Amino acid sequence: MLHEFLSQYGLFLAKSVTVLAVLLVLIARLVSAGMRAGPGTHEHLRVRKLNRRLRGLQRSLEAATLSDKEFKALRKADKAEAKQREKKGSERRRVYVLDFQGDLRASAVTTLREEVTAVLAVARSTDEVLLRLESPGGVVHGYGLAASQLARLREGGVKLTVAVDKIAASGGYMMACTADRIVAAPFAILGSIGVVAQIPNIHRLLEKHDVDIELHTAGEYKRTLTMLGENTEKGREKFRQELEETHGLFKEFVHAQRPGLDIATVATGEHWYGQQALGLGLCDALQTSDAWLVTTAKDADLFEIKFEPMRKVSQRLSAMMGALSARVLDTVADRLQSQRFP
Fold this sequence. Notes:
By secondary structure, this protein is of the alpha/beta class. It has 2 domains: 2-41 and 313-338; 44-192 and 270-308, 2-enoyl-CoA Hydratase, Chain A, domain 1, CATH 3.90.226.10. Helices cover 54% and strands 16% of the residues. The protein contains 12 helices and 9 strands. It has helices at 2-36, 50-65, 68-88, 109-122, 140-155, 171-176, 203-208, 233-257, 263-266, 274-280, 289-296, 313-338; strands spanning 44-49, 93-101, 128-135, 159-169, 181-184, 189-191, 271-273, 285-286, 300-308. Strands 1, 2, 3, 4, 5, 6, 7, 8 and 9 form a 9-stranded mixed sheet that branches. Helix 5 links the parallel strand 3 and strand 4. Helix 4 (109-122) runs parallel beside helix 5 (140-155). The model is unreliable at 37-41 and 332-342 (pLDDT under 50).
């Protein structure tokens, strides 16, 4: 039994050393490639044709459920359909599928602006963009820029559809309302057309411990409210005024994009679920992005595009090492579970 254990342990150790050696070789190659590569070498636009993916999912299930004869007939029909598409050539409508995962700073606008620029460079009048949007909102200037990027599509004559599967609230809805059409899942959250700001103040705590804070400004309203100093009623009034002005700009923007909205009703800061939002005019149809894509794929070519910026060598090394480490740990766990000690 001891001999068997030592034999299996030796085999396991040999595999571990092999994995480590491969890891070191990959790291060396990656560092070498990073040193040779010039600025911007690794940023690119990744394009994936979704029609093939959707058809592949369908055919995989059919291959398991249909008879060989039935499946061969389907494959024959696929080939005939492909020939018909080739004859039509570039006449088929194209749909470019973009994704926006929103955070507080709307940081995804960095890639969105590149994707929009790429689409505008090749889009035809018959083409369309689908944006799968998910965001609870965030900073005004970040989401204002993101909405402006989407407005470029409409200004360029490219139809824009926004699909909301989960949430497009506040700044997220500011983006959504730029679309020609908004589709939302039945329980997706839309709206929250309002502005909120809060700031803690520990002035009394500091005063209790005899801590003085001096704040010097040039300009009467350079700093209306502060975390450390004593806030005045005049400063609070100015702060509230600025919030109201921002809210007014938000309402004007939404109303300009969707003039049919009763802005007084929907711009209260409240949010609504899909079915309610449809009744209020905040969206145009109840539909998931998946259903929209499956339906559209019948008469259009779907291209999912994602701009991938250049990553530093250290970032690529970190990602690669993380992935390989996970594989090594999985291997170790599998080996330990398979061991049968005496």
